[in-house]
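Morning. Coffee machine broken again, so started the prediction first thing and wrote up yesterday's gels while waiting. Chain of 323 residues, entered below exactly as on the submission form.
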Amino acid sequence: MSVQPTESNWFTASAPHSFTVARPSRTSKLSNVEGKVDKYRRVTFTGKLGVTEGSYPAGTKAKISIDYRPTGGSWTSTGTFDAAYGASFKASSSKKADSGAQWRLHIVNAGVDSASVKLGRKHTKIWNDGVSPEGVRKGSTLTAKGGLMQKSGSTWRPYAGQKIRVWFKAKTVGSAWKELGSTKTLSDGTFSKKFTAKQDGTWQMRYTDTVSTHYADYGTEDYVDVRYRVATAYEAASRNPSGGAAFAVGPATGSAKIDVPGAGHAHATQRHHHEAAHPHMGNRRPRRPPDPWDHVGPLHLATRTPVHCESTRTKRVQSWSWR
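Came back before lunch.
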């Protein structure tokens, strides 16, 4: 608006002077705004940015802030995003939602806010979870167990009848998580599921089959070492008749290392499931009860030298160890 005097430098109109100011041709507005929170606590807004009158040049954008206000607190921005005029938008906040706070959108430098909305769900927690036993033998039974709770107000209570999924990731490089099975929580919130130990890897229990009023939760990651057992420590008696030999069982290849005091070590090249007495023992049976892995034979060192089942000096196993 421009106000200028006449050529004689005087206003010709009588006082008081009045002027009419036109309304702006365009004003920003937000429409169809909807805010949601998912089971992973992610807050997402959708809507459309427009104007009350007129139009903006194609491609014109505005910066919009996602604001958060906890109970009894003040509004703060959790981050901004750019939206184009005349187009719909979808954006998520970097801040995780809690059990129930106010959220809104705010057009920066325009003084335009959306209506606020309360977003939140009940927290859940997998607790006292794990897989046992540790250091289990291949083929043995593993038990995945724990408990699930939900938060009501400030109190944690058992959460019954909920599906818990059990996931596993093998130790092998490049392995991905794989679901192995599922179970449901009992009246006290506890759960358990049995599996067969097959290989080294990490286990985790997950609660992801939630209702719209609850958040999901992941349990702790529990690594379990699956061991390949050579239970009877065969001694290289012909090479070391006066001492013992220690077996260290190798990884999934099934190889074994035999450490003979004073004679270094050699690697076994074969291993067989064999429940009969080893040929070097004659008719003698082992002192311990039979076990699927108590007898390994015929077992040969890399030099193809026979490995005896017992010490020629003590007639018994001297020592054995795990790895």
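Residues 230-323 have pLDDT under 50 and may be disordered. Going to sketch it on the whiteboard this afternoon.
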